[in-house]
Amino acid sequence: MPPQKGAVHVATDDWEDEAVWTYYPLLEELSRRHGKNSSWCVFLDETSLLNLRELLSALQKYPKDKQLFLGRAVWDRQDTIIHHFDSVDRKKPFLYPDTRAGMALSTPLIKRLTRRWLDATTRPKIDFTIDAQYEFARFVESAGIKLTNERTFCVEAETETCAVTFQPHKTCLLNQDGELKTEEIHVAVKTCSHFHDERLPVIKDTWLPDAPNHALYSDREDPEWGTVSVGVPNTERGHCGKTLAIIRHVDDLDTSMKWLAIVDDDTLISIPRLKSLLACYDSDEMIAIGERYGYMAVKRHGYDYVTGGGGMIFSRALVEELADPDVCSCPTIDTPDDMFLGVCLARLSVPVTHAEGFHQSRPMDYPPELLQPEPLISFHKHWMIDPRKIYAQWLDDNPKGMEGQQRREPSTAKGHSEL
To answer: For the chain, which domains are there?
Structure first.
């Protein structure tokens, strides 16, 4: 049997200016380059471990002339905002791939999807990209193809025959001289007088004590809560004026800061885990970290942005640039702040660094498989939950008074529900 050859692409290098994280821009290129000389296209996460022998063995089970879509299947347990409140059929749930564990598309399927993508009548109308793996799977479904659950695509070592294994990021180890101090992270909480008594007690009871360098930025100073006014009136939505005022205020005030974390007053966040993540990066470089969303991302005038609810993290070097009115100034004070900051990042040619641990919504808005084994950093919204219990269950590494209460168990191979 002649040796089997394959081609490897690092998507962000080979297609640097494309929104490759949405998958759509890859279709035409992969079809053009490999449509005649390949049987499969396999997509891997940057932290994936590949066992080529097991991958070939897994793929050989399937007829290569068929249109096939393989991956580690996950599914929603309830209607959720991050999936546009698509109706969930609990008896026959819609399956989509956990792309941390990779996914594989047969070449016939790549060709068909390319034709559908290039045809204006079958191309999906995409304004916002929120969950790329889900939305891409919906596009595949529109071609009449459903995901096949392939159990050799794994998160950690779920079986002895994993073809692809996702390994979560490890904590960065720094020497004593280079250690990031918690005090070097300035945590800016966006709040308003309407929510002082409702939301500020929650964060003071949960994560705020872990953030010694913090400030509560509001529309008025409140001695009871120690809020700081940045001179911008509250708005019903958007908050661009307040956020840019915070960035400029911090740039002038805090010379010891290496990182700025901007969170909402209903964000739940683990400061120790955030610190461990930021230790992996250089604050002297222009870096934006958080959960990546996209607006018109697959079009020339589109852009990526860090969605605000899960927390927006900016390096000191980037804060200095964003604080310059000639670089970033809001059209109106109620312009969506996270989206407009995405425009400013695009002007500066600063990519959004996506980190899986940040979440725009509540834990129950995600399949439980996707919340393991990542170091979870944040969740957002107090709607229909007890935020103190959510924090204790998912984010608190040093629980106090939790005797008798159920805590989340560490991830194991058994955490992946079988179909």
So the answer is: 11-166 (no CATH), 176-354 (3.90.550.50)
Stretch 391-400: mean pLDDT: 89
What is the per-residue pLDDT for 95? 98
Distance, CA of 134 to CA of 125 (rounded, Å): 15
Confidence of residue 413 (pLDDT cuts 50, 70, 90): very low
Of 378, 363, 361, 366, nearest in space to 408 by CA: 363
Pairing mode, strands 148-149 and 69-71: parallel
For residue 51, give both structure tokens. Answer: 């066992």
**Predicted local confidence at residue 178, as pLDDT:** 66
Q: Structure pTM? A: 0.91
Burial class for 353, CB neighbours closer than 10 Å (0-12, 13-18, 19+): middle
What's the whole-number average pLDDT of the chain?
A: 91
Name the nearest CA neighbour of 162 among 68, 63, 44.
Answer: 44
pLDDT tens-digit series, residues 198-234: 999 999 999 999 999 999 999 999 999 999 999 999 9
Three state DSSP letters for 128-158: EECCHHHHHHHHHHHCCCCCEECCCEEECCC
